[in-house]
Amino acid sequence: MATISDNLQQVRQRLAAACQRHGRHPAEVSLLAVSKTFGVEAVAEAHAAGQRAFGENYVQEGVEKIEAARRLGLPGLQWHCIGPLQSNKTRLVAEHFDWVQSVDRLKIAQRLSDQRPDALEPLQVCIQVNIDGGANKSGVAPDEVLALALAVAALPRLRLRGLMCIPEPAADFDAARRVFLQAQALFQRVGAALGDRAAAWDTLSMGMSADMEAAVAAGSTMVRVGSAIFGRRAYPRA
Ligand SMILES: *Cc1c(COP(=O)(O)O)cnc(C)c1O
Questions:
Q1: Do the Cβ atoms of 69 and 44 come closer than 8 Å?
Q2: Ligand 1 centroid vs 85 CA: distance in angstroms?
Q3: Which atom of ligand 1 is nearest to the CA of 102?
Q4: Can you give the residue ranges of every domain in the chain?
Q5: Does domain 4-230 have CATH number 3.20.20.10?
Q6: How confident is the model over 114-171, as pLDDT tens digits?
Q7: How far is the CA of 208 from the centre of ligand 1 (A)?
Q8: How far is the CA of 34 from the centre of ligand 1 (A)?
Q9: Nearest Cα residue to 49 out of 2, 102, 9
């Protein structure tokens, strides 16, 4: 059976090949390992294989894992919250995570900024955009991104980094790339409009296990990969 370390190696090779094919420099695309539903042992295994950035969808599960990893003394970890956020969970997120990629309304961003402890770095945030208008999906509509970005950029304890999206699974590479290219165009347009108001606007988080190559082809700067690293998730979560 392939180990997490083998899988990570393979994902890195897929990314390197996609960068080569599409004229991207490998250093432009970072890898977020999505460890949701897997235990801290899986995180430790990936950490031993050189992985540092991890993504979690469920706040309670994520916080428990962050604390378990701290008890193990794993150095250099960076934790990203990538799941839908409710108001009553923002304090836990503000106190434990380094990044939140799923900001899709101002009220949540305001709470995160208010609740971010002074002793920590500002919370790094991305706005989640519903790029393909998928039904019952989180994320702000594309034409509402700029207004939200302007408001988020003004919050003192947040640092606005860019956009995140999760398009519907596409039929093939070209279809996937078309949607990702829309996200890239929006990312560039909003970044230009923000100018100095969001000096750290550098992150376009898109691409998962099944479509990371198409995302790299369309300018992704961060792919979020779960099952290709950790294997199939044993239990589905809402
Ligand atoms: C689960 C999840 C991923 C990883 O998905 P895989 O298909 O397992 O790679 C990436 N992003 C988000 C927001 C997720 O919820």
A1: yes
A2: 16
A3: 13
A4: 4-230
A5: yes
A6: 999 999 999 999 999 999 997 767 899 999 999 999 999 999 999 999 999 999 999 9
A7: 6
A8: 6
A9: 9
